Structures are given as C-alpha cells and as structure tokens.
Amino acid sequence: MAWSIADVARMSRVTSRTLRHYDEIGLLAPAYIGSNGHRYYEQADLLRLQQILLMRELGVGLREIAQVLQRQVDQVAALREHQRRLLAERDRLDVLARTVARTIAELGEDEETPDMGKISRPENLFTGFDTARYESPARTQWSDQAQQSAQFAATLTEAEMERLQHEATAAMVRMAEFMQAATPVTDPAVQAEVDAHYQGISQMWTPDAAAFKALGQSYGDDAQWRAAYDQIAAGLAEYQRDAMAAYTDARLS
C-alpha cells in the first residue's frame, strides 16, 4: 500500500514542503512518483519518517540524522535506542515538573503576591534544566570543545550533576545580587565569581580569550540563554556578559 504526500503530511503533521525538502537533501525519498507527478510513500518510508521525527524531537540535526540512518542496519535496535533516549527525556521532564511543583509550594497559592523571599533554597529553582541545550552557538563554533563537555558530563553521576546544577544556579543568584547592588563588573568580588565560572568550564575544556568572551556574548544574544538568566533577574545575562568580557581583558588577553 502507498500513501500520497498529502496523506503523509496529514498523518504525520509534517508539511508537504518539508517532505519535499527531505527528498531534496536525500533524507527521505518517496517510494515512487506517480504519472500525475505526485510523490507516494510506502510503509518503509513511513517508518523512516518516524525515525527522523524521533531524532528531531531529541534535538538531532538533519545532517546528523542522515549519518545515523546511513549507518543503521537493525531497524528494531535503532527504535530501541530512540525509546531509551525518549524515556531519559521523560525522566528529565519529570524532574522539571517536581522542580516547578516545589517552587509553587514554596511560593504558596497567593498568585497576587509572589515573594522570592519565600524561596528557602534558590539554587533549587533550576534543578533539572538542561542548560547545555542553550549552548548551540558555542557548540557550532567550538564543536571539539562541546564534545569534550559532553564526554565530561557523561562521566558524572546523577547526584554530581544535580550538585553542579545547584552550584551554578547559586552562582547566578550571587551575580544577580551584585548587579542589583550596582556593583561594577570589574569589582574583585564579581571577578572572583567569573573566575570560578571559568575554572568550572575548564574542567571540561579550556576556553581561550576569544572563546570565553564569545561565550559571554552568547548569554546576552541567545534568546534561550537570556531567558534562563532573566528568570533570576532581568538584565542578568548582560551583566554576566560584561563581567566575562572584563575578566577576559584582564586575565586572558
């Protein structure tokens, strides 16, 4: 049995334009093209599209998907691997749900008067957030270093990962306090925080002056990173960026 491109678009909620693009880049060709010029897909093609969409859900790029599909031999084994990764993502989302539930409980039910002073441990606000996904600019520009970071993260236990997340969020809170006190980014206390940030990154890879300054710039430029910082204090991303630039000029250049 074969399905037209319109049928596949309706079933998968992938636009016909996207399906044609997948064909153009060699990712998903139709089984055949009818005499009417329409593309038709068979069951094997639908299964391949499912794998493409699964990997897209997991944040894999089209080029990497093509490489995976090219190497793939055992389709069932591949699906099991996709399932494993999806279950891991489900577990991560469960952690995020518990984080939000804890925040709601600490803030109380009065939505009219939320008070950050009620948060007993602000470093817990971001437990479960995968901040690594916000580092796409750095990952693109420094792919080798990003791979080193991923390898380092893979060696950590869940408890160690949670501890590092708590420490990172606590550091962001301290930087927010400096910002709200109008402390200059060149102040020794602020620069000590940036140095701790640099040393933490250096456990995974050692950024040079250009890389560290560019990473700080991405905190201000990238919408997702900026939103992550702004959840602690508005303008924190720019303050962190400027503090990292000052550190780079003084210590790395």
UniProtKB/TrEMBL annotation:
A Pfam family it matches: TipAS
PANTHER family: HTH-TYPE TRANSCRIPTIONAL ACTIVATOR MTA, REDOX-CYCLING DRUG-SENSING TRANSCRIPTIONAL ACTIVATOR SOXR
PROSITE patterns hit by this protein: HTH_MERR_1 (PS00552), HTH_MERR_2 (PS50937)
InterPro entries (alphabetical): DNA-bd_dom_put_sf, MerR-type_HTH_dom, MerR_fam, TipA-like_antibiotic-bd, TipAS_dom
Sequence ranges assigned to domain HTH merR-type in this UniProt record: 2-71
Keyword annotations from UniProtKB, A to Z: Activator, DNA-binding, Transcription, Transcription regulation
Name assigned to this protein: MerR family transcriptional regulator
Transmembrane segments: none
